Every structure is written in C-alpha cells, then in structure tokens.
Amino acid sequence: MEGELSQVIDGLRELRSAIETTRNTMNSLPVFARGFAVQDFEQSTGMGFNSWLNSLDSAVSRLAALESLRGEERRSLAEDLRKLTQYIERYARYLESLPDKARMAAAFLGEEAVRGALEAAKYAARVRELKSSIEELLPRISG
Q: What is the per-residue DSSP string for 1-30?
C-alpha cells in the first residue's frame, strides 16, 4: 500500500500545482475575461480555487499521516476522498472543454492560450488516473 499511497500523494500535489497554475494564469487575464474564466472554472469543477487548494492540502496532509489515523479519522478521510474524486472527475471534464472555449475566445486570449488549452485537455487523462488510484486506495483507508 505504501507505493500506492505515495503515488496518490504525489498525484494530489501535482493536481494542486496545476490548479494553482490555472489560478495564476486566470489572474493574468484581462479584467473583462478574468471574471468569466473564474466563474466557468468554479461552475465546471464545483469548487473555487481556495476550496480546491484547501481540500487538496487537507487530503495530502492526512494521507501523509495515514498510519497514525484511527477509526473515525480514517473514515472521515475516506469520505472526503470519495467526495474529492467526484470533483476530480468534474475537473477532468473541465480540462477537456478548454480547447473549444479557448478557440471561441482566441481573438481575446491569443494563440498561446489556445495551445495551452490543448495541453490542458491532454492532462485530463492523468487526472482520471489519479481518480482511479484514489478509488483503489479507498477500501484500505476506511477498512
């Protein structure tokens, strides 16, 4: 389980970094586009940036201390991870939607943003791998 656990922790950290990069990218958008982009992210993924970052930080810290967690703490972690997998799936769908959205806004965002959106869509597969890894780990956490 240790290898799987460290793989999930690494994946969650990578996801956190990706979401933080998305937030920074959106903060650099022109004011008129930023509001639409942030709202789209929140509606598509189900959480705002701060909620994402807090949820991921909490999951990572509790998974890192998994051996010391007992009973209710483990069940609580498992439940939080189950919920997180639902948001991770929504995030993957959001990533897949980015190329079309970027093409529609290419005149405002530029070609670099369209290329970035295409790369983001490719990341969706890795996000789903993380989701699967978490789901495989869940029975051993709450068990």
A: -HHHHHHHHHHHHHHHHHHHHHHHHHHTS-
- Provide the pLDDT for residue 99: 79
Q: Which has more confidence, 90 or 30?
A: 90
End-to-end CA distance of the chain: 13
Which residue type is seen at 110?
G
**140-143 own/partner pairs: CB under 8 Å, 24+ apart:** 140/1, 141/66, 141/74, 141/77, 141/78, 141/81, 142/74, 142/75, 142/77, 142/78, 142/79
What is the structure's pLDDT at 129?
96
Least confident of 12-16, 45-49, 114-118: 114-118
